[in-house]
Amino acid sequence: MKFVNFINNIDKRWIYLLVALVVIIPFVFPVGCPMRITPPVQSMYNYIEDSIPENGVLLVGIDYDPSTMAELHPMAKALTYHAFYNNLRVLFVTMYPQGSGMGQDIIDKTLTQWNSANPENQKELGRDITLLAYVPGVSAVMLKMGENIPATFNEDAYGNKLENLPVMDGIKTYNNLNYMVELAGSSVVLSWLMYANGRYKMKMGIGTTAVSAAEYYSYLQSGQSNGLLGGLKGAAEYEKLITENHGYAGRKDASVGMDAQSSAHIFFILLIVLGNIVFFIKKYKEGK
Q1: How are beta strands 129-131 and 204-208 bridged, if at all?
Q2: pLDDT per residue over 55-81, tens digit each?
Q3: CB 155 within 8 A of CB 133
């Protein structure tokens, strides 16, 4: 009964401290939990890897804010690195005012990290990647992009005229873009599917938060999307693919996050098992 009494009387603050350690330690010392690549992630990777020619254009929708960046930011980073490895041009576009800050953060970090690790293949803002200026309107913006992308935005988020940017060479409508991946934690994904894909036949993939992923599987089955990154695990799978196939050696934010998340889940399961053991021991002792 000493063990039962000890568990029953343990100060909750010790449990909170253990939870904090279980979450923090994997961020400092990544474990690298094994994972299986799911077909929707593999499909998106394969399309970007095999179906977009060199100097092709990848459009990435940055339609999220800081509340969901933990899951979606690693996706944007991994997609940008994949494009750089294949010498593709990258255009970021956002329908959210907050998305401009998210996009600029990704561009700043990926350019710095890439150029530091790949001095022989430098990437430049305006030549290889940029973020289109935020324009309010959502559906109106998406429809106008189908007619004239440069006229829709006029300049990028850094104030540069699109007509002067090498990254925009040959780009006028969706027809001049090779693929789009929409990253969002909201229903704006449906607008892109309706207009960019439905009306203008833009080939699309989707990246979304784990809680929203289930509702988009029907669009995979219908062929409106050919790939899906679901939450942190989807981003971690994509990181694994670019690591295995291109030797990516940078910090894998999603994979590290999965280590912390998995460690916390295991710890909670152990607490539940321990709590049930103590409960049944106590009931048994009381019944004697």
Answers
A1: unpaired
A2: 999 999 999 999 999 999 999 999 999
A3: yes
Residue 31: partners with Cβ closer than 8 Å, 6 or more residues away: 259, 263
Give the predicted TM-score (pTM) of the model.
0.89
Domain parsing of the chain, residue ranges: 2-25+265-287, 33-251
Average pLDDT of 15-27? 89
The answer to whether the CB of 278 falls within 8 A of the CB of 4 is: yes
Q: For residue 231, what are its two tokens?
A: 């939450």
- Name, in order, each residue with C-beta under 8 angstroms of 146's C-beta and a sequence gap of 6 or more: 173, 174, 195, 196, 199, 200
Map 74-93 to HEC letters. HHHHHHHHHHHHCCCEEEEE
CA dihedral sign of residues 239, 243, 246, 248: positive
224 Cβ contact partners less than 8 Å away, ≥ 6 residues apart: 193, 197, 198, 204
Does the CA dihedral 198-200-206-212 come out positive or negative?
Answer: negative
Three-state secondary structure call for residue 256: helix
**Phi then psi dihedrals of residue 8, to 5 deg:** -65, -30
Beta carbons of 171 and 149 less than 8 angstroms apart: yes
Q: Measured between alpha carbons, how far is 54 from 178 in angstroms, rounded to an integer?
A: 11
What is the topology classification, in CATH, of domain 33-251? Rossmann fold (3.40.50)
CA dist., res. 115 & res. 80, Å (int): 13
| C-alpha closest to that of 66 among 94, 93, 101 | 101
Element (DSSP H or E) covering residue 179: strand 179-184
